[in-house]
Structure of ABC transporter substrate-binding protein:
Amino acid sequence: MVKSRKTLSVIAASAILALAGCTSAQETGSSNPESETSSQSASAIKTIEDNFGSHEVKTPAESIVVTDNRSFEILDAWGVNLAAAPKQLIPSTIENYKNNDEIVDIGNHKEPDLEAMAAVNPDLIINGQRFSQYYEDIKKLNPDATLLEFEPRDGEPVDEELKRQTLALGEVFEKQDEAQKLVDDFDKAKARAKEAYDSEQTVMAVNVSGGEIGYVAPEKGRFFGPIFEWIGMKPALEVENASDDHQGDDISVEAIAESNPDWVLVLDRDAAVKSDATPAEQVLKDNAALQNVSAFKDNHLVFAPGDTYTNENIITYTETLNSMADEFEKAK
């Protein structure tokens, strides 16, 4: 059949368009221009505010280093892959990071291998807690990386700082909904513990390490300190010049017994770092001086999760607050 001039013109035009499309795909290095556009739009630059100001962060990051103990559990739950981390400081409960041979170990905060960190060419570093002291060194060794730190700032409420960190990480890793849920769960647990607490009962927090019992001061003491203020708990004992020492302040068990707390909150420091240590519960219950204390007679002891000392993030606090609420409610 003989084609009309009009038909031939349409065929020619179609061929030209098809050729142009092929040429365009070849120039972009892709046979699927739509896929190329989608890939380009997947990357973005975000402005994130941390302790040191505003930073531009490329998302998604390709090589990620994390040194901050408060971040590991959160990022693991979100499926974030790490290039390097101080694996000796990662809690054993976070198996995906702790036992991952593909993650380069940069040592611990006492003898860090910062060169090993630089060797993975990070484009994003989440620094903090035990590694805060190395901020300037890390920055100098990794000039092309975005360095973020959300360590709770002095003078700021710890609960708000935990939420700030969580929400910022949600922005960095495109997990805004998940981050908000962690914050909501934390707020609910805090409100629940406050509601369940009997304001007439006294509370003491202790830190057990190396078989020794240390005093954790309300407000400033390690981990449990801020909870006193959040819940409005009545301290059984207040010590002058108390600190936030990682082993607690040195007071005698006789002083603890004399204060006769109705509740004792316990942080087992060794549980997170020593597999062969005597459990805190045994240390406390085997101590003859404490046997007549109300909290021990009534079994009003609340233990923080075993990995708390190396895992003091918003999830750990949420779990602890819910445990406190459980025990307070049972006692009513």
Summary: Confidence is low (pLDDT under 50) at residues 1-31, 33-41. Residues 198-331 form a domain with the Rossmann fold fold (CATH 3.40.50.1980). The two ends are 96 Å apart (CA to CA).
